[in-house]
Every structure is written in structure tokens, then in C-alpha cells.
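Example 4.3 (complexes with small molecules)
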Amino acid sequence: MTDAGRHPKIKLHTLSEVKEVKGQVGDFTARILKQARYVDESACTACGECAKACPVVRPDEFNLGLSSRKAIYSPFPQAVPSAYVINADECLGHNPSICAKCVDACDKKCINFHMSDEEIYEKVGSIVVATGLSPYDPTEHDEYGYTRFENVLTSLEFERLINAGGPTQGEVLRPTDRKHPKSVGFIQCVGSRSAHKGKEYCSNICCMNTIKSTLMLKEHYPDVDVKVFYIDIRAFGKGFEDLYRRSRRLGVQYIRGLPGSVSETGDRSLSVSVENTMAGKLETHELDMLVLAVGLLPDPGTQRLQEMLGLQLTPDGFYLEAHPKLQPVDAATRGVFFAGCAESPKDIKESVTQASAAAARAIRLMHKGEIAAEPITSMVIEENCKACGKCAEVCPYNAITVDVKKKIPAMVNTAACAGCGTCAAECPFGAIVMNHFTDEQILSQVDALLAENPREKVLAFACNWCSYAGADYAGVSRLQYPPNVRLIRTMCSGRVDEDHIWEGFRKGAPVVLVSGCHIGDCHYIDANHWTEKRVARVWKKMEKLGIRPERLQLEWISAAEGVRFAEVMRSMEKLRQEVTAEEVERTMEILNTKKQ
Amino acid sequence: MSLQSKTSSPGEDVESIPKIGVFVCHCGANIGKVVDCPKVAEAALGLPGVVVSKDIGYACSEPGQQEIKDLIEEYGLERVVVASCSPRLHEPTFRQMLQSAGLNPFLLEMANLREQCSWVHMSEPDAATEKAMDLVKMSVSRARLLWPLVEEVHPLTKRTLVIGGGVAGIQAALDLAENGYEVVLVERKPSIGGTMAQLDKTFPTMDCSI
Ligand SMILES: Cc1cc2nc3c(=O)[nH]c(=O)nc-3n(C[C@H](O)[C@H](O)[C@H](O)COP(=O)(O)OP(=O)(O)OC[C@H]3O[C@@H](n4cnc5c(N)ncnc54)[C@H](O)[C@@H]3O)c2cc1C
Ligand code: SF4
Ligand code: SF4
Ligand code: SF4
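Answer. The structure with iron/sulfur cluster bound is encoded below.
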């Protein structure tokens, strides 16, 4: 922490938030709002004289309200920067007649009420998002009585209580009578692994954190009775099982089953009812103190930042990486990386590992001091563009600007374009050329494969990242499928134009397959949504024209689904066999007379 | 990239078809055992634009690449079709080969005869050979219409914004800074440290967190 605070290459802005980010990889500009601290950061020696003078007493948020602080305070003893800070909302005011006691108390004269919030602009080439976690608020778990019973604490509150630097100097005391509890219970999975309350995922750290707490309790108070209520204990990491064993050896009782209700007894102890699923019976446990092992949620500001940077989130609300195995710290947006709990709940070791990985990925991107833009990008043929705005609407990267009102033709920002080709497929006026995957190039492949015996063949479009990779995986696994399948590779299924499909049927293809990444897995954010819409459009038109829509199939196949790829190929072949020569003839006639 | 490159693009009147070379790789026995590679190479010779077509033991090997480069020079090839393994594997290899032979790397086209042919139709050599010929034909048609692309190079600011000053943000900032990169570390609270600063002992080492 202190290393980061004094490193000459690190510029630290505390009390600051990023409000806006403009530009793209290599050339971002961030607008940062820095709140006034009212204390000169470089002059303050953290002597604390000011706080002694301050008459305002408030709950200390660092200790989760288990202790108090003044309106001018140090966040915690080891804080970086170490300077004091004034909470302006709590401060009585600087008009001397009201207060300003701190100003007089400070010898170094570092308190300055005229400081104001600052707007700072920073230019950077890459961004690491490490916004971390926020602990689950167990209020909605009313059965555990967190808001009703004072001796029910969250795991983070317990952390402060047992912390040598905490409000009780590390003595574990019951909030109600400040006595050492003789028995302590822990309830696991609070806010995790539930379809009803909190989240469905496992929060990853709370089992181990509880095991740690039981060890600390037993170390401080060998006689204390400790019970843990759990679904199952997840101790999968290096050295974890060992701690779990140690905890049990010290006599900590692990009781399988989550309590159904908690009530308070006369001396403000807690009576916990639980179905012990190991013993198969209902039990009641009397405990002096109860700790809720709360789950980890993403930081509440996550969505704002996600929108600002054009990132994606998982259904759980954490940031979505570009690829779960091969690019676990990259965002799909080039130049943005993830580290720590912002990406998913994890412990310190994993957070640090991921942070180093993110730094290495950022360095790999930046070290040349220049950046080669993706050459496979789209370009606009100005003469053909009618400024309808469709391309800008569909581009997942906001890489196209077009002024619909003033009829200013579309322009592609090649630095931002990722090359999915969706714009080229959606432009109603053929005004966009997708480099390396032009209409002519793709149509030439369709024509070549259907030049001879078209009725014998299966025409399949596959996206580079998922379905084509899935086909490769089928190969690597030596999965056998019918040999009449011919794949045409595009970068994204979003590139497959209606015309490419029609050309297939026009040239005698009995069946056509469009395939890509599963919805939500698209390598180009959500370009495959447009694939889905487009194929649905073609189905409708086929129906109108009297062509069986079943002859066009849409399948999502991931890079790992070799088995599924082979299955889909077999079912395409089955479909093909059901298409008669007459049917193909008729389709060709329809399409050749009525040029789509 | 640039609009000028469009001039060499397809379309209306392609007076001069570019000179294309086709190289059919055996991949040892991986492709050669199932697909009749010499036959595929021979068939390709009849396709418009193809001026040389050969089968090769291992196209990706040093001698294999040298042979292709020599033929590029000998025939003045303008497009290259390599029929071998998946482009997801060796496209970068062969693009580099084109570059070192003085050709734009985007004038390469690959036909996938291994992952998507010989390996998945192992007991049907005739059908696999026929498919291979089709795949090569498709690649040659596409190759004819390829045009060179240039990678635009933009300047880059060697500086990183780290959002969030918890243990993850601090570690990322320090790694970057120690490597000589400037870092802007933004933290919403009055101090960095994040959740970890609130912990005393931490698992699995049970030692102090800060
Ligand atoms: C009760 C509890 C006990 C734990 N015990 C252990 C343990 O014993 N061992 C272990 O390995 N792990 C433990 N963990 C997990 C550990 O705390 C996390 O792995 C670690 O803190 C994650 O670090 P982080 O940097 O990703 O996030 P955080 O520590 O949450 O830091 C994120 C920082 O980013 C700041 N921030 C967020 N959004 C913004 C924004 N928009 N702009 C600017 N700043 C922002 C926040 O203010 C915060 O300072 C425990 C967690 C809890 C809750
Ligand atoms: S002005 Fe008074 S209330 Fe405000 S910080 Fe100073 S001493 Fe405290
Ligand atoms: S780590 Fe343990 S307590 Fe936390 S959610 Fe997962 S199983 Fe439940
Ligand atoms: S839609 Fe795809 S190809 Fe078109 S500009 Fe956007 S990223 Fe580029």
C-alpha cells in the first residue's frame, strides 16, 4: 500500500471517480472528479490534533459503525495517503463563529476550507478495471434477525471485531454486554447459492474466511464453543483443506444444514433452529453470538462504469471477460483489462495473480508505443450511402458515425472497428465493404461449391471464433460426420448477408446452415443478435415465397462443442435428404425470376 | 484499408486474373493417408488463374516453406492457396511466409483439409478427396478476389488508468510502475486499500493483510 502511495510513477487520486472516458485503445481520455479533502495532503503529518478538537462524533464506516470517529478523521491508521480528511456533510462549517476548531488546532496550517472539487483529465493508452466487491447486505434474510438482534454480525463486522487494530483492539466482545461470548455460530452462504434471496453463485471466499475465523477464535479463546452451519464446505485451494482439518481438530463443530430461524433469548443470546441433514433431525442451538458469512457482490458502481466503457457483464453482474479460458483478464473492448473481484468473487491470492496478469497484458499491448489497428475492418462507399443510420445502430463497437438528420454519410472509425461485418450485412444499400470478407469473396465461395452437384451438398456458414472452431474441435477429436458438408468461414455470423443465403438457394443448395457463437458468447459483443434477427427475416420471406423455411437452419455451436458440431452436421444431412430435386428446381426458378 | 486498394477489387472487369499457386499439404500421414493429395493438386491446376499446383510433405516446415517461397518467386505468384490444416492454427505462419516472400500477407487463402476433412472422414477416402477438391476450388475462387490490406499504425499513450485501489488495483499499478509505465490510480474513498485493509489475518497463510 505505502509502496503504491509513494511510487514516482504512480499518480494517486483518492476521493475520485471516473466520470467519462472518451477515445479508444491507445488513446483514451478520462474525466475524473476529485472531491475536496479540505486538508493539504502533502503537509498533513497525521498528528491528529484536529480530530481531538472536533466536536462532531459520527459512526466510523471503516469499522462498520462498531466505533466512532470525528468529522475530520483519518480513514484508518495505515491509510494511504496518510492525511486526514474532512467529511463536509458532517462538518459544522468553517464560519469561525460556528466552529473551525480544527483550523486552530492544526499547527501546520494544512486545513483549508476553500478547497473545491476538481475536474481532472488524464490521457492513457490502457485501462485496468479493479473496482472490487461489496459485501451482501443480509437485511432481507429476516429469519437470521440481522436487523433485529444486536449479537448477529456480518463476517466483515466480525473481521473488524477480531482485528488487533479494530474497535476492540482484537478482543471479541458481544455488542450487547461487551462480554466474551462463550459460544459463536457461523451461518454460511448468506446471500449466495440461493435462487430466492441474494445470488445463485458461490461467493468463493466465505467458507475459507469462516474457517479462518474459527481458527482465530480458538487461538484467542481455546474454550469457546464454535459451530458452523453450512451446505457444504468448499476448501479447494492450495493449503485450504489443511486449515479445514485444523479447525475440526480444534473442536469446531461443522453442522450440515442452514438454520430455518433465529430468535433471541432473555440474555440476548441466540437460539438457532436447524435441520441437521447429516443426523437427519431438527436441532436447536443456543449461541452467544452469530456471524453471517455474507456473499460478495460487485461494486454498486459497476453498471455505470460498464456503460461508460462499453463493457459487458455476466448475468451475475460481474464484468465479462473476452474469453473465459484464453483471455481471462481481457475485456472484449481492446485496451481494457480486469483484475480482482470486479471480474468475479475471489480471494486475495487470485486477485493479485489476476492483477499481475492484467498488468502484463497491458504492457504487452503498450510496449511498442504504437498500435496496429485491425486491418480487417469495414469501409463505406460514400456514393452509395444514404445516411439511413442502420450501420451505426448495429455496430457493437459504436465505430460508425452517421448524421441521419443532416444526411452526412457514414464514417467508420477504423481504430474502433473490430471487423465483425455486421454493418456490411445490414446496410440496405450495399454501401459498406467488409475488407477480407467482401460480398464478392463470399459469393465466389458459394458459387464454387455449388458449381457441380449442388443437390448433394450442405452449405454451412461458420464464425471464426465459435462454430468454425467447434468444427476444428470435432476434427481434433476425430468425430466422423457426413463428407458432403462445405464450410465458409466468416469472422462473425453477423457478417452473413441475406444475399449470401439467397445465393445459395438460387444456385441449387438444398439446405443452408448459419452458425455462430451462443447468444451471450459472441466474440463481437452481441453481433449475433443481428444474425438471429436476420435469419428470422429470411425465414419469413422464404415462407412468403413458398420455400420451406426448414431448409435454412440457425445453430449456435461453441468452440468446445465438437460433439454438437458433428451432430448438427448429421442432422443437416438428414434434412438435405428430405429435399427433393423438384423442390430445389422450384426454388431456383422462384429466386431467379424474382431476384431477391 | 485505404480506398485505393478497392481498385484491385473484384467486380466489373477483371481483365487480368492474378497468378495463383496452390500447395496441398500431406501433413505427413494426417491428410495424405485419407486424401489423395497429388490428385487434389492436379485438379487445382485446371482452375482459372492457377499457374502452379503441388503437393508437399509438410508445408509448415522450414523446407516446405522454402519450397513455396521459391515457387512464388519462380512463377511470380500473386496469390497463394495453402490446403493444409486449420487456418486457426497456421494462418499466421503462412502469412509471415508470404510477407518474407515479398507478398502482402492478406493475399493468402487456406483450405482446411485436416480438421475439417481427413480427420472427420477417415473411412471415406474417395468422398474426402472429392471434398478436398471442392474446398480447394472454393479457396482459389476466393483467392482470386483477395486484395492487399495494410495494418494502420496509430501512436499509443504508454500510460495506464487503474480504476479501484484495492489489492488488485494496487498490485496492477505496482507491476506497471515497476516496468516503467506511468499509472494513474483512481480510488473513490479517502484511502487506497479496499476490503483487504479491513482484514487482520487472512487465509491461507493466516498472516497480516496489510
Ligand atoms: C469478510 C471478508 C473476509 C475476507 N477474508 C479473506 C481472507 O482471509 N483471505 C483472502 O485471500 N481473501 C479474503 N477476502 C477476500 C478479499 O477481501 C478480496 O479478495 C480482495 O479484497 C479483492 O480485492 P479487490 O482489489 O478486487 O477489491 P476491493 O478490495 O473491494 O477493492 C476495490 C477498491 O476499488 C474502489 N472502487 C470501486 N469502484 C470504484 C470506482 N468506480 N472508482 C474508484 N474506485 C472504486 C473501492 O473503493 C475499493 O477501494 C475476504 C473478503 C471479505 C468480504
Ligand atoms: S470545522 Fe469544526 S466540525 Fe468542522 S472539521 Fe473543523 S473542528 Fe470539526
Ligand atoms: S464459499 Fe462457501 S459459504 Fe461462500 S457461497 Fe460458496 S459455499 Fe457458500
Ligand atoms: S459493425 Fe463490425 S465491422 Fe462494422 S464498423 Fe462495427 S465493428 Fe466494424
